Amino acid sequence: MLRDIWVRATTVQQPLPTTSVALVGLIALAVVWSPPGYRLVRHVITLVHEAGHALVAKLSGRKLRGIQLHKDTSGLTLSKGRPSGPGMVATLAAGYPAPSVLGLLGAVVLGQGYAAGLLWTMVLACVVVLLLIRNLYGLWVVLATGVAVAALSWWASAAVLVWVATALVWAMLLAAPRSVVELQVQRRRGQGRGSDVDQLARLTRVPAALWVGVFFVLGLAALVGGGWLLLAP
């Protein structure tokens, strides 16, 4: 079975024509920026967001204690170490750019024709994150995501895999700035004062609004770059 998965993951699939990629992007835009669609997509975005925190926490030498995902689509990554300093700042700053980074990497991989490889990599990432989950709802989200992607990658045709992988990459790229907009809306309403940007403001003395702007610009830059990679002939 592992050999079959390896063969599928390393087999090259023909990327979609530019017009089809653009069509998928428009559909993803409509889904991500509509309230009902975004509520559904946000569960996966939060999973990627918290995985970004966890990865950078580990790389910066902090002791990772676990990840929680909640029904309201919020999440929490717990790590142990210095409450301030570069490692803590990097850990806090990693969450919002994480979907953009994944989207950019996904666009590069799709450009090389490895749609199946991208999806199987996502399955592997879900297995790793599953070991870090510390609540039942989070366990359900990661299991459902991993099993769904694995089943699709195993049984779907190559053509379907390319369409799905393209849609997922567009969703990551489009949802990253969308999540920053949502954060700012919540802050204007007096909510989310314990958010990543507010914690960063306390640690760095850089205003939270400036951190919001930085994350939004990074998300837009990734969207432009990733979109160019996806639409390039």
Describe the structure.
It holds the Pfam family Peptidase_M50B. This is Peptidase M50B-like. Keywords: Membrane, Transmembrane, Transmembrane helix. The chain crosses the membrane at residues 16-33, 114-132, 137-155, 161-181, 208-231. 73% of the residues lie in helices and 6% in strands. It has helices at 2-10, 18-32, 35-59, 86-93, 98-111, 115-130, 136-155, 158-188, 196-204, 208-231; strands at 63-69, 75-80. It has one domain (2-231). It is globular. The chain has ten helices and two strands, in the order H-H-H-E-E-H-H-H-H-H-H-H. It has a two-stranded antiparallel ribbon. 40% of the residues are buried. With 233 residues, it is mainly alpha-helical. Helix 2 packs parallel to helix 8 (158-188). The two termini are 35 Å apart.
Question: Top keywords for this entry?
Answer:
233 residues, mainly alpha, two-stranded antiparallel sheet, 10 helices, 2 strands, Peptidase M50B-like, Peptidase_M50B-like, membrane
Describe the SSE topology.
Layout: H1 2-10, H2 18-32, H3 35-59, E1 63-69, E2 75-80, H4 86-93, H5 98-111, H6 115-130, H7 136-155, H8 158-188, H9 196-204, H10 208-231
Antiparallel strand pairs: 1-2
Helix pairs in contact: 1-6, 2-8, 3-4, 3-8, 5-8, 5-10, 6-7, 6-8, 8-10, 9-10
Pfam families: Peptidase_M50B
Keywords: Membrane, Transmembrane, Transmembrane helix
Protein name: Peptidase M50B-like
